[in-house]
């Protein structure tokens, strides 16, 4: 499946289980099925994801950029989430999540280098938040916002080597690791050239 959103300069392609992705009037909608997730447990022998989740991805533009979306999640079960997703290799990817973790809607991040880490950032009551992935030089940054204007720094990190990071794919993911499914919508989608001037000053 291929989708071309007018807000983006690159096409998006579906990966993983069927996310029933649709786009209408500026809103992208996807749905995770029961117990769908993308996470490699940090403990244990397996390097395979514990499950898999629907993703819609495209190759990011060259150079620094910002991918922004307002995310609304139909929270029902623990760890339901809407996600901006970054992929540089089969075992190197990252998620910026608006997740019920486990009882309150929370900004969470996962960076996978073979195995996944998992970190909670801050609670955002309700069902809607703004998320942003940026590439800044050879690094990537995650931010979140309650209004799309003032951004809270969440994380900066490197992922992959210089070649794979330059060819990174970015896009959208829906997950429902413990539940029976979760619908997620992304609107106010925007692709900006350049990175934030300062990762920590709210701009």
Q: In total, how many domains does the architecture comprise?
A: 1
Low-confidence stretches: none
Inertia-based shape = globular
Strand content: over 45%
The CATH topology name reads: Jelly Rolls
Biggest beta sheet attributes: 9 strands, antiparallel
The first-level CATH class name: Mainly Beta
Mean pLDDT: 95
Tally of helical segments: 1
Pfam family, one: DUF1349
InterPro entries: ConA-like_dom_sf, DUF1349
Protein name: DUF1349 domain-containing protein
Organism: Streptomyces kunmingensis
What does this structure look like?
This protein has a single domain, classed as Jelly Rolls. With 203 residues, the chain is an all-beta fold. The protein is built from one helix and 16 strands. It starts with a strand and ends in a 10-residue tail after the last strand. The strands form two sheets. Strands 1, 2, 5, 7, 8, 9, 10, 11 and 15 form a nine-stranded antiparallel beta sheet that branches. Strands 3-4-16-6-12-13-14 form a seven-stranded antiparallel beta sheet, with no helix packed on it. The longest helix has 5 residues. This is DUF1349 domain-containing protein. InterPro entries: ConA-like_dom_sf, DUF1349.
Write a concise keyword list for the protein shown above.
globular; 2% helix; Jelly Rolls; 16 strands; 1 helix; DUF1349 domain-containing protein; ConA-like_dom_sf; DUF1349; seven-stranded antiparallel beta sheet; single chain; 203 residues; nine-stranded antiparallel beta sheet; mainly beta
Explain briefly what this protein structure is:
The chain has 203 residues and is mainly β.
């Amino acid at each position: 499946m291929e989708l071309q959103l007018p807000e983006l300069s690159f096409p998006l392609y579906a990966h993983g289980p069927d996310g029933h992705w649709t786009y209408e009037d500026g809103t992208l909608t996807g749905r995770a099925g029961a117990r769908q997730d993308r996470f490699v447990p940090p403990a244990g022998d397996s390097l395979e994801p514990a499950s898999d989740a629907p993703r819609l991805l495209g190759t990011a533009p060259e150079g620094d950029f910002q991918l922004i979306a307002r995310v609304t999640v139909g929270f029902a079960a623990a760890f339901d989430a809407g996600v901006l997703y970054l992929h540089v290799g089969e075992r190197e990817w990252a998620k910026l999540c608006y997740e019920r973790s486990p009882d309150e809607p929370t900004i969470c991040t996962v960076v996978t280098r073979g195995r996944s880490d998992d970190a909670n950032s801050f609670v955002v009551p309700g069902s809607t938040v703004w998320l942003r992935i940026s590439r800044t030089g050879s690094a990537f940054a995650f931010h979140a916002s309650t209004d799309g204007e003032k951004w809270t720094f969440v994380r900066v990190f490197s992922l992959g080597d210089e070649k794979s990071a330059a060819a990174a794919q970015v896009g959208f993911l829906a997950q429902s690791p413990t539940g029976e499914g979760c619908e997620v919508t992304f609107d106010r989608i925007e692709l900006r050239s350049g990175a934030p001037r300062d990762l920590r000053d709210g701009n």
